[in-house]
Amino acid sequence: MNQTTPPEPRNDHDDAARRRAAARAAHWERSRKMTMLLLVLWLATGFGTVFFARELSRFEVFGWPLSFYMAAQGASLVSLAIIGFYAWRMRRLDREARTAAGDEPR
């Protein structure tokens, strides 16, 4: 005789908790990937321009060698752009995560 147990009733609280956990995991994965990409970009502009200064001095920006321009202003401007992009993108990712988790947007 094959005895089967009846399925347990669905608990909406468990479904909501699973949905929130999945949304948190997806949010964490996306934010980690974006952070790593932006850190690599920051490293390339901060360290890369100094390390490859001789090679970059062949190119000119506004009449100045690219290596000098990047050291004087370019790396700072890229850092500001990275910070601005990070703030904008994280706001969107947070909003998407709240929506996916079923929370009310702020």
Describe this structure in words.
This protein has 106 residues and is mainly α. It has a domain at 29-101. Helices cover 75% and strands 4% of the residues. It contains three helices and two strands, in the order ααββα. A two-stranded antiparallel sheet has the order 1-2. The radius of gyration is 24 Å and the shape is elongated. The relative contact order is 0.14.
Mean pLDDT across residues = 85
Low-confidence stretches: none
What series of H and E elements makes up the topology? HHEEH
Number of strands: 2
The biggest beta sheet reads:
2 strands, antiparallel
Tell me the distance between the termini: 56 Å
Overall 3D shape = elongated
Percentage of residues in DSSP E strands = under 5%
User: Structural class of the helix and strand makeup?
Assistant: mainly alpha
Strand order of the largest sheet: 1-2
Rg to the nearest angstrom? 24 Å
Number of contiguous helices: 3
- The percent of residues in helical segments reads over 70%
